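W.,

You were right to be curious about this one. When I first looked at the sequence I had no strong expectations either way, so I just let the prediction run and decided to look at it fresh. Below is the sequence, 407 residues in total, followed by the output.
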Amino acid sequence: MAAASLGFSPDRLQRIERFLQDRYVGPGRIPCAQLQVMRRGELAYEAVLGQADVERGRKLEADAIFRIYSMTKPITSIALMMLVEEGAIALDDPVHKYIPAWKDLAVFKAGLPGQFMTAPVERPMQVVDLMRHTSGLTYGFQNRTNVDSAYRRLHVGEVYGERDLKGFVDQLAELPLEFSPGTAWNYSVSTDVLGYLVQVVSGMAFEDFLETRIFEPLGMVDTGFSVRAGEEKRLTACYQALPGGRMKLQDDPEKSPYLAPPKLVSGGGGLVSTAADYARFCRMLSNRGELDGARLVAPKTLALMSANHLPGGADLTQMSVSLFSESTNAGVGFGLGFATVFEPARTLLPSSRGEFYWGGMASTAFWIDPVEDVAVVFMTQLMPSSSYPIRRELRTLVYSALMETNA
């Protein structure tokens, strides 16, 4: 469908590709870029530029496979909410109901590296704490506290390490929390734990649940925890940002661990996907939980997920103790698997109340605007995601091309 019939200015949409080429791809700041802009369930604009593999001079194709890292989290969150809808688990259930070894979790208070003085939690961790990152868990790469250090030293959450999903959860039982559940927000391995809960409650391997209950119904044929056999040539290279706007190869697509199934299936960051596949997931979200006759969740469930669940109605700037996240905006809260905008003016970006989104460590991103019925998927492969303000810039560029609004 033509962009103009969907309310976009074709000329202004074309500015996006020029911007990406001139600002990022041409100067070698990012290797490639793929953008899909959708409205009312139809593709309004797509840009595909740069190289899938700079070292080998391989051009990016529209069906390229990307590491989506934390864009795995919304998929895992949908999986958990499908089980909530079935009455198999509840958001206010204590996590130790499903992981008995977590009944006596404690909070870190003091101690030398590797030594912990702890105190009891103020209340048990609930399933909702895992959904909204108020669990007290962390990520080792944050380099902020003794608990982070212990995660690094013990290789907590290492996808290609010795532990599977159950082993990972058992290991966490031995470590203290950063804070008592519900008292702060910290980007963490919480969503990986949700993957384990999906496995326990459903009685299916987590990867099998995603395949049969989400990927197959939505037609996400290229999404999984490794690249499908025979499709290896479609995997992009991943790069690490260097000072001065340069980059270096971080993961060679011909030697990548993503070419084989991992030991630990990470619901927090383990999937590979394509722009087309993730666009189908986003279209399901835009369409209030259903796509092409396949309903994953009900409209009211998705409305609950995209509401701000931070205690007291706070935003991330008030609740976060994290040194790393995919979002740093004022006026942005966190729902059940997504960041959500509840005060658009404070973001200093064109946006809508109720817009929800997330991104991945290699600078991928998506957002859903229910007011304007707009969905956007952006793919590239540059770590870390904080290297450039490209996500904020894309919001401005996309909304600057929207001429017919519902607001």
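Here's what jumped out at me. Residues 67 and 272 are 4 Å apart (CA to CA). And, maybe more interesting for your project: The longest strand covers residues 42-53.

Coffee later to discuss?

I.
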